């Protein structure tokens, strides 16, 4: 076994049948097209590495919004589902009540159509990569949401005669028994599985799936081409700027609407207190939006609360440009010195540019990320955030900023090297595959 418990690529190659034939067709499934910029970073990272190694192969995506994916990534894309769930509350799912039973019955023709179209799409495909993007969870949904879609496409892939590989997936809470069964069944159909941190690998084992022989690699976004995240020139910095991410986190399986509103309100008040402290101490502030759809409300709510306190963005010098693309988000993070955010990939993108971060964590994935670069002490839970603790963490990190940056840079390079190893493994059986 080599570093991080990863066996040599040669061992992996021996387990795979040799590829023979013509141009390969490769699919990438993920939670794409929902305006979550972290998910789009993930697809961009694995696409760039696939295209570098397999420049002549046909590559496509399976997306929740194919038009959005085509526009962002310039590759063909097919729909995860052809049904319209825009008016369906994801919290209700399949279970409970005559109304839900009738909804399920009405869904049957659409499901048959989805299965047939999935198999048709997958015909001639060599492998489908189930790509990161937090798909192994029923957080904010039910078994009929992400768990079912993941299972359907994994099963349809096998029915269509192609391989399934889970690459860099994270495991968030899986509350429902049916959700756990669907996810375990989907994972069992794969000939390769890797998780983005040890916590995810351990968690899926607790949910009843034997992950002992699976891999752990860093998050795929660490493999974005270096030119995507240019290093910041600190010599141009006159005022230290804080990138402040906000989000509306709601665990629907644990919190009632009333409890969520109380927790959300307390979180926003703490953020307002911290913004006021930053302004008092002459820091620049940039508001970061890691999810174009769901973070818009939190941005608006934060601004409204600050204005009620007499703090106006224009006079306080707070920059809030919003972001709808990965490039915009990266460009904004590049103009900060410290990132404080609940969003996993906003923190990660900062680390790739050697910008340290503090996590307002809603999931252990954030904690694992900071642990991996030696910043594990700079975090606290989003549902129990303390203003003074945040100030103390910020002041401590600022004092150590020149000491922690070399460690962040070194860890980022190591993560990229490990991901190069993984790409060599997962693409190794394609005829004519070469590293450029």
Give the SSE map.
Layout: H1 9-14, E1 25-29, H2 37-53, E2 58-63, H3 66-73, E3 77-79, H4 98-122, E4 127-131, H5 146-159, E5 163-169, H6 177-188, E6 192-195, H7 198-206, E7 215-216, E8 241-245, H8 257-280, E9 284-288, H9 295-308, H10 313-316, E10 318-319, H11 326-333, E11 338-341, H12 344-352, E12 357-361, H13 364-372, E13 379-381, H14 387-399, H15 401-426
Helix pairs in contact: 4-5, 5-6, 8-9
Describe this structure in words.
By secondary structure, the protein is α/β, with parallel strands linked by helices. It has 2 domains: 7-227 and 415-426, 3-Layer(aba) Sandwich (Rossmann fold), CATH 3.40.50.2000; 228-413, Rossmann fold (3-Layer(aba) Sandwich). Helices cover 45% and strands 13% of the residues. It is built from 15 helices and 13 strands. The protein has helices at 9-14, 37-53, 66-73, 98-122, 146-159, 177-188, 198-206, 257-280, 295-308, 313-316, 326-333, 344-352, 364-372, 387-399, 401-426; strands at residues 25-29, 58-63, 77-79, 127-131, 163-169, 192-195, 215-216, 241-245, 284-288, 318-319, 338-341, 357-361, 379-381. The strands form 2 sheets. The protein has a 7-stranded parallel sheet with strand order 3-2-1-4-5-6-7, with helices on both faces. A 6-stranded parallel sheet has the order 10-9-8-11-12-13, with helices on both faces. β12 (357-361), α13 (364-372) and β13 (379-381) form a beta-alpha-beta unit. The longest helix has 26 residues, at 401-426. The chain is globular and about 60 Å long. It starts with 8 loop residues before the first helix and ends in a 10-residue tail after the last helix.
